[in-house]
Design a protein that fits this description.
The complex is a heterodimer of chains A (125) and B (473). Chain A has 125 residues and is mainly α. Chain A has 2 domains: 2-61, Helicase, Ruva Protein, domain 3; 66-112, Irregular (30s ribosomal protein s13, domain 2). Chain A is 46% helix and 5% strand. Chain A has a two-stranded antiparallel sheet with strand order 1-2. In chain A, a hairpin with a 2-residue loop joins strand 1 (2-4) and strand 2. In chain A, helix 4 (66-82) crosses helix 5 (86-93). The two termini of chain A are 25 Å apart. The model of chain A has no long low-confidence stretch (mean pLDDT 91). Helix content of chain B is 39%, strand content 10%. In chain B, strand 5 (227-228) and strand 6 form a beta hairpin. With 473 residues, chain B is of the alpha/beta class. Chain B has helices at 3-30, 39-43, 84-90, 127-135, 157-171, 192-205, 216-220, 240-253, 278-287, 292-303, 341-351, 375-389, 405-410, 424-436, 446-455, 461-470, and strands spanning 122-124, 152-154, 179-186, 209-213, 227-228, 237-238, 311-316, 324-328, 334-336, 360-365, 415-419. In chain B, the strands form 4 sheets. Chain B has a 5-stranded parallel beta sheet with strand order 4-7-10-3-11, with helices on both faces. In chain B, helix 4 (127-135) packs across helix 6, helix 4 packs antiparallel against helix 8 (240-253) and helix 14 (424-436) packs across helix 15 (446-455). The N and C termini of chain B lie far apart (95 Å). Classes of the chains: A mainly alpha (125), B alpha/beta (473). The A-B interface holds A 31-32, 34-36, 38, 40-43, 47 and B 222-228, 237, 326-332. Chain B: Its main location: mitochondrion. Chain B: Keywords: Mitochondrion, Ribonucleoprotein, Ribosomal protein, Transit peptide. Chain B: Belongs to the mitochondrion-specific ribosomal protein mS29 family. Chain B: Residues 58-70 have a biased composition (Basic residues).
């Protein structure tokens, strides 16, 4: 078990996959982070040295990820809603925001377009 | 019978047949115990068979092709343990108990390995050399070693050229030893990796230091750790785990250098014991991978001191190190393979920028089956071949291809060792060996040799093996 950014990961898990479990880190960002710390793409979490782990966690702490990022996205949506914008209303109704047709095929909008976008996270906001 | 009596008879009959049913119905409402009946089991719901589900309802999706979904009653076999399949894939089997012992097979040894008389014959590899070659991963899993009782090689024309080069290096006077640089080229399955193995074998038998990078791809595909080398400008990168493994291989394969004393002062992260030997130096690098590169550099410095043996430094799959590696620098740019310390060490000597004071051979093989297209390498090899064999026909650089100037610079005057097919005599010697091993059940005469030699694309050795011992008709 290794702790990264306060979460524990199995030793056998890839560093790349572990980083991408955080909200706000995808393939590009994880690649960038790993290059910065000279971690090769196939490295397992268990192979990281303590020093690297500490630097990694410090790096993640300075980034806007997880709940900070969720909060920002939700605030942006809430702002739209509070000022009564069409986009805010559509978000609140769970409908497409950018003028798409709504007769069929709006599953993605139903899933994503909501005020509490991104859920409440692994640690409750 | 009178009609009135017959009518009465019918009503009587009716009464008898209808009334019991009424009675039954009424009785059924109050009856507590069941009569003997077979209908209950007959009409009971049939227990579902495993794996069979009810027919899907209309409108539901039935096609389910997702992989990895657990099936009931599916495969319950034991899963392979971690690393088991890779170990199986990489296993090198060097003997076959079912093949016959070839009584006439002689071993190569220190004296005969450079003789002219071994040309064109098949020779066995002695046991200690097998251990050394195995230690440096010179045997490849897909080669045909597992077909025969013990490893043997045919000493072909190109191997004799190599022996000649070894002789030249050894005969050089002290202080003016030659550093020979060669790139083996040739078709797929023409025996390039095996020639590297033969080179390593000859060098080992002549008590040279043998260093082998068995697969260039492993250096650049970003599967091992890397770290920036402090104080290097432009930035270089070390591969600590790989280097530590390489050091342990060097120690296993070169027992003769283990007890040589360390003669110079080296700045290592850990202090050396007093009266240190090269073994204790290497052990530091193996035990602490972080210091492996500085240990390797120190070892190289020791090996290039006067009086030390010549070095055979070989790599297989050259094209992989002639381009950007899969590693990324801190600013997310690809790292050129030449900026990896081990690769740079090799390329410095291959390009002739540095030379070995005690002499040696820098030996690189291209690969026919696993090699990326590198325009600069292909063009350099064409130029080298033209320089050697047809100077009037120098190839022109195609301005529409993207040539890596670092590669062009490194390969600008390196020579090639082109590998052609076997001659018919060599093919015959090899096929006689196959027949004596019991792997080829045919009379080896001119007809068969000519046929198989032609089938194998004019003596391509891999194809020859395929058409004679691997193929079963």
């Amino acid at each position: 078990m290794v702790f990264i950014f306060g979460f524990h990961f199995d030793d056998q898990r890839l560093v790349k996959a572990s980083l991408e479990t955080f909200y706000g880190i995808g393939p590009k960002v994880s690649q960038r982070i790993m290059a910065r710390h000279y971690i090769h793409p196939w490295a397992k979490v268990g192979s990281l040295k303590n020093n690297t782990l500490m630097n990694l966690t410090a790096d993640l702490t300075s980034m806007k990820i997880e709940n900070d990022l969720r909060r920002e996205v939700q605030e942006n949506i809430r702002r739209l809603k509070d000022m009564g914008a069409y986009r805010g209303r559509r978000h609140a109704m769970g409908l497409p925001v950018r003028g798409q047709n709504t007769r069929t095929q709006i599953a993605t909008a139903r899933r994503l377009n909501k005020i509490e976008r991104g859920g409440s996270g692994r640690v409750q906001m | 019978m009178p009609p009135s009596s017959s009518l009465r008879g019918v009503t009587q009959l009716l009464r008898e047949t209808v009334q019991p049913s009424f009675a039954c119905r009424r009785l059924g409402e109050v009856q507590q115990t069941a009569y003997l009946s077979t209908s209950a089991p007959r009409f009971a719901s049939v227990p579902k068979k495993k794996g069979l589900t009810a027919a899907p309802k209309k409108g539901t999706k039935t096609l389910n092709v997702k992989k990895g979904r657990k099936q009931s009653g599916g495969d319950t076999g034991k899963k392979p343990a971690v690393g088991e399949r890779k170990a199986m894939r990489k296993a090198v089997v060097l003997s076959n108990n079912n093949a016959l012992e070839v009584s006439s097979l002689k071993n190569l040894d220190n004296e005969n390995v450079l003789d002219a008389e071994i040309a064109g014959k098949v020779y066995g590899i002695p046991d200690d050399a097998i251990d050394a070659l195995r230690a440096v991963d010179a045997f490849k899993p897909k080669q045909g070693w597992k077909l025969f009782r013990r490893p043997a090689v045919v000493v072909r024309k190109e191997a004799m050229q190599l022996a000649q080069l070894i002789k030249e290096v050894e005969s050089g006077s002290e202080g003016a030893k030659k550093t020979v640089r060669r790139i083996i080229t040739g078709e797929r399955m023409s025996g390039k990796s095996t020639l590297v193995l033969q080179g390593l074998l000859m060098a080992h038998l002549r008590n040279w230091v043998v260093i082998n990078l068995p697969e260039a791809q492993d250096l650049v595909n970003a599967h091992t750790e890397y770290a920036p080398l402090q104080g290097s400008q432009p930035m270089q990168y070390t591969q600590d785990t790989y280097t530590a493994n390489l050091l342990s291989q060097i120690l296993k394969a070169n027992k003769q250098i283990a007890d040589l004393p360390v003669t110079k002062e080296h700045s290592l992260p850990q202090p050396l014991p007093p009266k240190a030997t090269l073994r204790s130096l290497i052990d530091i690098g193996v035990a602490t991978p972080e210091s492996s590169w500085s240990v390797f550099a120190a070892l190289w410095e020791e090996l290039t001191q006067p009086g030390r043996p010549p070095i055979m430094f070989a790599i297989d799959g050259l094209a992989h190190i002639m381009r950007n590696s899969e590693y990324l620098s801190a600013d997310v740019k690809p790292i050129h393979a030449f900026d990896l310390t081990i690769v740079r060490q090799f390329v410095d000597y291959l390009s002739g920028a540095k030379s070995l004071p005690n002499g040696g051979i820098i030996f690189a093989a291209t690969s026919g089956s696993n090699s990326p297209t590198v325009d600069a390498l292909n063009f350099s090899l064409q130029c080298a071949a033209a320089r050697q064999f047809a100077p009037e026909k120098m190839p022109r650089w195609n301005p529409y291809t993207n040539l890596d100037m670092r590669v062009m610079e490194a390969l600008k005057d390196v020579d090639t060792l082109p590998l052609k097919g076997l001659t018919k005599e060599e093919a015959r010697a090899l096929m006689e060996y196959y027949a004596e091993s019991g792997m080829l059940r045919a009379k080896v005469d001119d007809g068969l040799v000519g046929e198989r030699w032609a089938l194998a694309g004019m003596g391509n050795i891999g194809e020859l093996e395929r058409t004679t011992v691997r193929m079963r008709v």
